[in-house]
Design brief:
The complex is a heterodimer of chains A (about 220) and B (about 110). By secondary structure, chain A is an alpha/beta fold. Chain A is about 40% helix and about 20% strand. In chain B, strand 3 and strand 4 (about 80) form a beta hairpin.
């Protein structure tokens, strides 16, 4: 019989990624670049929200966008066409999330001396992206009205890692059984410190408040 | 859903440790998976079979899963209780000043070579 040997490892699967993510945050801090990780389910309006927001911000700060998808470059092309800002497409090759190493590869293709803010549009998914720290300064997510106000209860990890929740498509509130008050309460249960901003990316309502939040975040990151 | 990504991480770590220990083949990997870690054990083992067999060192290598029960601690009354049954609210005193003590693990415990 072959000799059997047991090698103890006792190590979290996410440990390496956390080390990479912290190192990346440190480098971004040294360069004065703010990275926002934006997450949501598919179809919540991430790209439309980004276009609105970028158009409000592009004369005030220098920004770039990284679009992560399993395949295609439709989002990167659309962002570039509608806003004129630099936009890179990352392909995850079938993976349902980005990790710190993939984020770093995306950042390497940007000239970081020329940007203050990079927004990473993560893969549309409420489960996996929440597990992997990308190295971003803050996490934000978009919950759209048609998805329902109970999502913070169903996807607890996503809401507990987010510093900001944008509730999008509030123009259709009268047609859905979605209560903003209930939604705020459920978000607070997961993360009492999370901010909630109701917006409508289509009409632009509330988007200014998100843009202001980003401006003050970037300013604090650079000066703190 | 993210089990395949996790499998790739496990493979990377296991290969590294096996190489450091001069092993040519790994016969089993033992994982500690918390009850509320969001990892679905049978998805993990399915993804594992598919991905591990593509690696010379891990062909036929078995993935064994220990489930770690989730336990929540209540700061209000100081008691512990099972998370899956009662959730965030303490069944002893109804407080929600509670936090997860264990059950979120996604850990490689050991490998057998």
């Amino acid at each position: 019989m072959d000799e059997v040997k047991v090698i103890e490892i006792k190590k979290s699967v996410f440990a390496d990624n956390e080390i990479d993510a912290n190192a990346l945050r440190g480098e971004l801090k040294a360069k004065g670049v703010y990275l926002l990780n934006l997450m949501s389910s598919p179809g919540s309006g991430k790209t439309t929200t980004l276009i609105r927001t970028i158009n409000l911000l592009k004369d005030k700060i220098r920004l770039a966008v990284m679009e992560a998808d399993i395949d295609s470059d439709v989002d990167a092309v659309k962002i570039k066409r509608e806003t004129g800002v630099e936009s890179v497409q990352l392909h995850t090759g079938g993976m349902c999330h980005l990790d710190a190493e993939m984020t770093r590869q995306g950042l390497d293709s940007l000239d970081l001396d020329k940007v203050d803010l990079v927004i990473l549009e993560n893969v549309g998914n409420l489960v996996c992206p929440a597990e992997f720290d990308t190295g971003a300064v803050r996490n934000a997510m978009i919950l759209s009205v048609p998805e329902g106000d109970d999502k913070p209860l169903k996807y607890p990890l996503m809401f507990s890692v987010c510093d900001l929740v944008l509730v999008n498509k509030i123009d259709v509130l009268p047609y859905f059984d979605f209560s903003l008050e209930r939604c705020r309460e459920y978000v607070a249960r997961r993360n009492p410190a999370a901010q909630v901003i109701p917006i409508c990316a289509r009409t632009g309502e509330g988007v200014e408040q998100f843009a202001e939040w980003l401006l003050s975040e970037v300013k604090n990151w650079k000066t703190e | 859903m993210h089990e395949l990504g996790i499998v790739f991480y496990i493979i990377r770590d296991v290969k590294k440790v096996a190489e450091e220990n001069g092993a040519e083949h790994v016969s089993a990997v033992v994982m500690d998976i918390g009850e509320v870690s969001t990892v679905v054990p049978h998805y993990l083992t399915d993804c594992w079979r598919w991905a591990a067999d593509k690696e010379e060192m891990l062909k036929g290598c078995e993935l064994r899963i220990n489930t770690i029960p989730a336990v929540t601690h209540c700061d209000e009354c100081g008691k512990d209780y099972p998370t899956v049954k009662y959730g965030k609210k303490c069944p002893h005193c109804s407080s929600d000043r509670t936090w997860l003590l264990k059950g979120n693990e996604v850990e490689i415990k050991e490998i057998i070579v």
